[in-house]
Amino acid sequence: MAKAKGEKPVKAAAGVKPAKAGKAKVAKAKPKGGPKPKQPVTEESPFDLSESRWYLNRELTWLEFNRRVLHEAMDERTPLLERLKFIAIVSSNLDEFTMKRIGGLKQQIGAGLHELTLDGRSPRQQVLECNTSVREIETVKREAFRVVRELLEAKGIVIESYDTLAPKDKKQLREHYYKNIYPLLTPQSIDPAHPFPFISNLSLNLLVTLRYPKSREHSLARVKVPVGLGTPRFIRVGKGDHFVPLEQVMMNNLDMLFPGMLIVSCEIFRVTRNANTEKDEEEADDLMSMIESELKERKFAPIVRLEIGAGMEPVHRGRLAAELELDEENDVFEVPGMLALRDLFEMSRLDYPRLHDPPHHPVDHPGLPAERNIFHTIRDLGSLLLQHPYVSFSTSVERFLREAANDPKVRAIKMTLYRTSIQGRIIDALVQAAQNGKQVAVVVELKARFDEATNIHLAEVMEEAGIHVTYGVVGLKTHCKVILVVRQDYTGLKRYVHIGTGNYHTETARIYSDIGLITCDEVIAQDVTELFNYLTTGFTAKRNYQSVMPAPKLLKKALLSRIEREIELHRQSGGGWLQFKMNALEDGEIVKALYQASMAGVKVDLYVRDTCRLRPGVPGLSDHIRVVSIVGRFLEHARIYYFRNGGAEEYFISSADAMKRNLEARVEVLCPVTAPELTVELRAIFDCYDADRRSAWDMRPDGSYLQRQPVEGESGEGTHQMLIAQAQKRLKDALKQKKKPLQK
Q: Which residues make up each annotated binding site for Mg(2+)?
C-alpha cells in the first residue's frame, strides 16, 4: 500500500535525539473500583511527546483509509458488482471529504489562521498534501474502474459509448430523451447580459459552445444534467443490460435545446461546495430556524473544487475557475473518463446474485423469543448484547420500541435521535406511543451533518403527533444512542434501557457493524434518567453518575484514568493489556497516554477503522502497540474499550471515538458491560480481529498499511464472515437447547 503523503518512515529509537526530555504524565482523575495508583509516575522518558513527528495527520490518515477501501475494488476475491460498489463508496467519500475537511481547511486559510496541527502542519500545507493524495487515489480508482468495467462487459453488463451505438439504438435513445429528459432541462446563457448561473453542489453540468450559422462569434450556455428524483444516471439501451450515461445522450441531442444553432463543442464539469456554514447557536433565538438558514447558506457556500472532463479548452477551464473564484492550479481537477463515479451505486444494484456477496440475513437474537413479551424476557435475563448486522435490528431494537408503544403498562419513552430513516419504523413507533397516550420525549440532533433537513422534518412530524421534542444542550452535539422505557411492573415502575454504538437507522443497521446493550440494570437506568434530564434542561449540577460515563464531563477522564491505572498495575505485577475498538483515534491526550502505556510495557491493541494519529511499532516509544484496520463487507462502526485491570477485567461499549470533538464537544456515553456471558461475546469479537487474514490491515510506523494474507492452513475468512457464522451458531445452539427433552 502507498503510504500517506508527507509522512516519513520513523527511525529506530537509537537514532532519536529528543529536543527535550519529557516526563510521563498521569491524569489526576481516579477510577471507580479496582486498584488505584499509589503515586504518580515520574520516570524520565527518552521521548518528547510534544514533538510533532510522533503524530500522523488526521486528514492524510483518513485518505489512507480510502486507499484500503479502494483495494476492495481491486481485489479479485471481491464479487464484481461489489467491486463496482466500492468504487462508488470511495467516490462518495472523497466528495464528502472535499465538502467537509477541505472546505473547513480553506475557511481557516481564508480567516488567516496559521495554527499548526499536532503533527506540525498548517492549513495550507494540509490542503496541498491532501490534494496530492486525492489525485493519486483518483488515478488508482480510474484504473480499477477500467478493469471492472471490462470484466462486467464479459458478463453482459456494458456501459456503452453513444458514438458506438447502432442507428436504431440512437433513435430509441433520442425518443426516450425527448419524452423523459428534454422537458426537465433549462439551458442558461453565459454572456455579459446574463450573470454566471448558480451551480448546485455535486451537479453534473454541460458547458456548450455554439454560434449562429452565419456568425463567427461564439456563445456559451450551461445545461444541468438532471440526475436524481427518478432520473437515473445510466439509461438502458436495447433489451439487455447495456447502458449509456445520461450526459452522453444529452450531448448528442443538443439540437433540440438549441434549434438552428451550430454546436461548436460540449464539455462537462462538476463543482463541490463547502459544507461548513455553522453559526453560533448561543446567539440564535430559534435553533431550528438557524439550522434551516445554515442549509440555505450551504447551498450557496463557496466552491472548493472544480472537476472538468479531459480535454476542456484552456480558455474555458480558466474562465470557470475565475467565475467560481478558484485557484486554477490547485483547485481544478481534470478527470479522464466519467465524472461523478458515486453514481455507480445504480449499476452495483443490478440483480446478478453471483456477482454480489452471498445474501446476508440477520438472525433473531436467541434470547428474545417472538412469542413472549419483550420486557418480561429482559427482566428475566437482566441484560443482553446485540451485534448488528448479524442480529436483526428489526426484531430487537425496533421491536423494543414497537412493543413499548403498544404495551398498556408502558408509561413513558425517552430517546435520542442522531440519524434515522425518514420513513422508518422508529418514527412510526414513537408516533404510535404518543397516540396511545404515553409520555414520549425525543432529543433530536439537528446538526447531524448532511441529515439536518431530514431531522428538521422528523422533528416537525413528531411535534405534530404530540411528542416532546428538544434539541439537546447548547454548544454540544448529542451523539449518544440511548432509549429509556418506563414500565409499570408488578413491583412498581421499572426502567428498561437500550444503549448502542450506532444510529437508530434501519438501512445502516444492515451494513454497519455495531453493538447494542438492552438492560434493566437499575444503576444504568438511573444514570440514563439523569442523562435525559441533562439533555432536556442543560443543567449539570450534582448529577451523580455511578455506572454510565457521559462526555464531555466524565468520559475522557474515565479513559485516561484507566490507562493510568493499567500502567501502574503493570508496574506492580505485569500483564497490562488494553484493547480499544473505534472508528478514529485523533485526540492528542489519548494518544500520549497510549504511548506512555507502551513505554511502561503495557500491551496495547488498537482496532481503528480510519483516522489514526498514533505511530505503532516505533522502538522504545510504541513497540508494544499494534494498530489494525478492518475493511470488508460491512462498515466497522462499533466502539469497544477493554482494560485488563489486573485480572478484574472491564469492558465498555460507547458511542464515542477517541476524537477531541467526541470527548469534549459532544454528549456521548461510555457504558460498562459486566455480565460474564456478554463479555464472552465481546472477547470473541476481538478474537475475530486477530484471526482475520482477509480484511485486516496492519499499520506501519510511517502511516502506511499492509494487508494480512492467509498462509497455508489458515482460514481466508474475514471478520465479518466469522461473526456471521458465530451469530448463526448461537441461534442454532439455542434452538437445539430449546428442543432438548427435560431430564428426568
A: 419, 449
